[in-house]
Design goal:
By secondary structure, the protein is α+β, with helices and mostly antiparallel strands. The chain is built from two helices and three strands, in the order αββαβ. A hairpin with an 8-residue loop joins strand 1 and strand 2.
Length: about 100
């Protein structure tokens, strides 16, 4: 329930669009389309995203609508085209989750 409130507040900020600077970017990653295990914030990494954004008086937020890929990084966590841990993402587009041919 707390997570839903958290996402709702972030989504509301993102829907407002560009309102000036500074601006934060937020991207979610996970092993499938329903479970986020990693989040990247464009200002600096932080677990307390809303508090961090408010502390820095951020005026604009850009955020993806959902999870955009696995939490592992090619060349750091694994070698090759696809992550061997997150089978869901093998052969899928990172933004839509649809199979790529």
């Amino acid at each position: 329930m707390v997570e839903n409130r958290f996402l709702k507040r972030l989504s509301k900020k993102a829907r407002k669009g560009l309102r000036g600077w500074p601006m934060a970017t937020i991207a979610f990653y996970g092993p499938n389309l329903s479970q986020a295990t990693k989040v990247a914030v464009g200002i600096v990494p932080s677990r307390e995203i809303l508090e961090f954004i408010e502390q820095h008086q951020v005026r604009s937020v850009a955020m993806t609508d959902g999870i955009i890929g696995c939490p592992h990084q090619e060349g750091i966590d694994y070698e090759g085209e696809w992550c061997p841990v997150c089978e869901f993402w093998h052969g899928r587009d990172r933004f839509t989750g649809q199979r790529v041919h």
